[in-house]
Every structure is written in structure tokens, then in C-alpha cells.
Amino acid sequence: MSKVPSKYKFLDISDYGRPIARYIARSFVNTSITPVQVTCMFIISGIIAIIAMQYGYFITALFFLLLKSILDAADGELARLKQTPSYTGRYFDSVADILLNAAIFYTLYTITSSSFLMASIAFACLQLQGTLYNYYYVILRNKVDGDTTSRVFETKTPTALPGEKQQTVTLLFITYRILYGGFDAIIYFLDRNAFTGSILPNWFMTSLSFFGLGFQLLLIGVLLVLGLKDVIIPLFIVLSVFVFLFIAIRKLCYNS
After folding, report:
1. Sign of the Cα pseudo-torsion (222, 224, 227, 229, in order)
2. CB count in 10 Å sphere of residue 40
3. CA torsion sign, 144 to 147 to 151 to 152?
4. pTM to 2 decimals?
């Protein structure tokens, strides 16, 4: 099931694992396996990738980074197939992502010549890039009657959906706000009027999807395998220039 109507589907470069994710979700749909359990699987996959990075097994790291991305898509697919959307799954997924991303860049700091400061800046840049992509994508989904589990403005604790506990939703939402609030605030400050603009075209969203986490992890894994581990941290810092380019294009061409 797509997050947007067919008319607004675009080639999502970061979502290369979707076909396999759908197969996995269909395999689980008539079982007791829940979307949150699939999220736990991608956490395990991410941890294995980080351990492999630390010990220099870069092909293994690439494999588990790809598997992590596939499972990251499969949990949402399974939720849609079982018709069990939840804020628990939505925030648990996001919290797991950012913690794994932080661990990945800390590991890159330990295995490369980059300083801890540069690794921290690169991590922040990666998160800012992903936040911009998610911001525009969530706006698109809300405008075209797509999936609305993710909200454009995550400022108020949502009411738990059937089958989940309000206490759990509240705790995960608070954690989400602590971890993501700063990045959300920066992107909103840079383009606070994005929601009132016109619907972004498919070519724009496809170009922006290079900032999606799936492609970012693929890029990290490939550079590790190619022996270019020292390039990763400065590259993600430089790529943040395109954050401002995309925002400028959105404001100049699609502001009404």
C-alpha cells in the first residue's frame, strides 16, 4: 500500500527496499508478528551493522545496513496491511532511527581520522537532510489524502489509536520531541510556509529523496566497502548545502 495516491507517486531513491519490504509484510500479515516487532528486527540489524563497522567487516556492514532499511519499510507496510496504524510504532521507529544514526557516526569517528566534533556535525547534517525530506513528504501526504500517521507539526501529544496505550504514546512522543525537536525547529524556521505552498512535483520529490535515510545508509555502506571511510563524514557535511538549495527552489517555484 502506498503512502500517497497513485497520481502523486514519485520515484523514491531512498525507498529501494520497498518491493522486498512488501514481500516480508505479506509473509507476516497472517501471523502474530506485529509491526513493532519488525521495528525491533531492524534495530538488531542496525546494531549488527555497527559492530561489523567497528571490526572492519564492511561488506557485512553494508548488508545489514541494507537489511535495516528494508525492515524499516516493512514495519509500516505490515501496519497498513493489518490495518493497525499506531503512534507507538511511528515514534518508536523514529527514535530507533536517530539513536542508530548517532551510533553509526560515533563508530565512524572511532574508525576514521575525523574528530568527534566533525562526526557530531556530520550526524547533525544527516539528520537535518532527512528532516527536510520528511517535512516535505509529510506535507505532500497530508495535502493529497495520503497516509497521515505522521503529522506535519509534531507539537502536541496525539491521542492513542485503538489497540495502543496512551501512556506509551505519550512517553515515546516526549522522547521523539527531545531527539528531533531541534531539527524540526530549524527546518520549520527555514521554510515555515511550506504547507501553504503548491503541491511539489514528482521530479522535486525524487531529487529530494536522496536525503532519505535509506539512501544515506546505502551511501555510507558503499563508501565503506570502497575503502573511502574517511570521505563519509566530510561528505555529509558538504551535502547539507543542498538543504538550502531545495528550500530556495521550493520558495521560488512552488510558493503558492
Report:
1. positive
2. 15
3. negative
4. 0.93
Q: Comparing C-alpha atoms, which of 251, 144, 239 is closest to residue 192?
A: 251
**Taking phi first (over 0 means left), then psi (-120 to 50 degrees means alpha), and beta for anything else, what does residue 145 get?**
left
The Cα–Cα gap between 107 and 173 comes to 27
Over the stretch 186-222, which tens digit does the pLDDT of each residue have?
A: 999 999 999 999 999 999 999 999 999 999 999 999 9
d(CA 175, CA 238): 29
Question: Can you tell me the distance from the alpha carbon of 40 to that of 152, in angstroms, rounded to the nearest whole number?
Answer: 25
Cell numbers describing residue 86: 499506531
The CA radius of gyration of the chain, in Å to the nearest whole number, is: 18
Q: 3-state DSSP helix/strand/coil percent for the chain, to nearest 5? A: 75, 0, 25
Q: Percent of the chain, pLDDT > 70?
A: 96
The residue among 103, 89, 74, 83 whose CA lies nearest residue 15 is 74
Q: Are the CB atoms for 256 and 195 separated by under 8 Å?
A: no
> Architecture of 13-253 per CATH?
Up-down Bundle (1.20)
Residue-wise DSSP of 121-169: HHHHHHHHHHHHHHHHHHHHHHHTT---SS-S---SPPPPPTTS-HHHH
Amino acid letter at 204? Answer: F
CA dihedral of 60, 92, 101, 29, whole degrees rounded to 10: 30
How do residues 36-92 score in pLDDT, each as one tens digit? 999 999 999 999 999 999 999 999 999 999 999 999 999 999 998 998 888 999 999
Cβ atoms of residues 213 and 69 within 8 Å: yes
Q: State how far the Cα of 154 lies from the Cα of 178, in Å rounded to an integer.
A: 11
